[in-house]
Write a structure and sequence with these properties.
4 copies of one chain form a homotetramer.
Chain A lengths: L2 E10 L4 E4 L5 E9 L2 E4 L2 E4 L3 E8 H10 L5 E15 L2 E15 L4 E7 L16 H5 L1
Parallel strand pairs in A: 6-8
Antiparallel strand pairs in A: 1-3, 1-7, 2-3, 3-6, 4-5, 7-8
Chain lengths: 137, 137, 137, 137
């Protein structure tokens, strides 16, 4: 099966918008600047900055609009998709990352987390880890 | 160049420990439970839970020990490495993810972020995003 | 949904085994050595080698057993899973990468590809790319 | 450090071009169609096809131009970068994947591999794997 898994780390530039589609779905959108470093001629140099558009849906979208702000560092995991549209009769392509998981990148600061009210049973959450010596073997 | 890039999402089980190595370095360690869902015979079923050990160093380590707690959902990006050691004369291998970025997975809740005090210039942080219509084209 | 996406590049060490489970399924297994380089104190140094176990199923498994040999460089994409079992009454954990895509890493050589005989219609294969100037915009 | 790691699997559409920059460097370029499947309303449906541009440099570029053809399935690992340029006075952005590893995706066929002539010592290649029972523990 074809796939386009991407993980990006960078900084939010601009607002985080939340749009309600009126059919029970919401979509959040924001832009992330990624400035990778490269080692060249004996030292680390900053490369060119790439701007990426990130979208998220529904529950994740609502949480992002309440948690993220311009200037925040983030880690984003999802799929890269191309969106094709027309402008002045010519096909145009926008690339965006459809996120399945997003968090503040704690490399650059600390965060306080608050779980959603448990409207749904959170069955996937483990209660306790097996002891370390059992699993390290 | 050989590489082992991994991104995992799951739930922290157990404490997040921070160890000071006494030479200016710190290392944080915690365990994450991942329970993927699979589509089989017409429905989504939960697969077996895998437990993974995550380590992080220095600044990221300090922030994680202040931000993460057992039961938190996380997104972790890093490299998978094998650590070989001996027990009762037999070689043993532990696998661990050495994290380069970690955040709360905002799929499951909201977070309030606080940047580090700016001891270092934060040069890589963009000031403002280019306008959307400039870059969507 | 919890996930453990991994991409690794390395060298096959040892045989590629193919096992028929007798119920129409086959599983291939092989081991990959990954030796990442790190930049430390002004130069690139080879890090420790990590050995990873890779498994693949059915059609991919059959193709791998016909295509791969010890010493080949590979790129592997899949999920990291923990397999828990017992030895002498103690729980043991093995980690393995369940591959969804595997290829020779063409960084280190060339390859000649032969498609499977078309038992199934290959609907997902595109016939022709849109012109470059249409999509680069 | 900011990063944009991506792994994509898809089908090559169109030619694989190799360009010599005249300064000892070569760059290969080709386009890949990715058509992910999604599970919706009780069945797998093909999503929209995304076209991605892939670039590779030097040794990898030369090997790709000798190994890949339109219609081949591939697995590509690398970084997503945005390339900004002007057209008719307006800034335009193209996204491309700068590949660090590329191979035929052996999900769809078999491949015969030929190593490069050993102009350089291949130090990173392991000679033999540790026995399975030593490392599985």
């Amino acid at each position: 099966m074809n796939d386009t898994q991407i993980t990006l780390t960078g900084w939010i530039g601009g607002p985080v918008t939340l749009r309600d589609l009126g059919d029970g779905r919401q979509v959040a959108s924001f832009r992330v600047a990624c400035t990778p470093s490269r080692f060249r001629d004996g030292e680390w140099v900053k490369g060119a900055t790439s701007w990426h558009t990130v979208k998220a849906w529904n529950q994740l979208a609502r949480h992002l609009s309440q948690s993220l702000a311009s200037g925040d560092p983030v880690v984003v995991h999802g799929r890269l998709v191309a969106d094709v549209w027309e402008r002045e009769g010519r096909p145009q392509t926008s690339f965006e990352v459809v996120a399945s998981a997003v968090g503040h990148d704690l490399t650059h600061g600390t965060a306080t987390f608050a779980k959603d009210a448990p409207v749904e049973p959170r069955v996937e959450q483990p209660q306790v880890a097996p002891a370390a010596e059992q699993v390290a073997a």
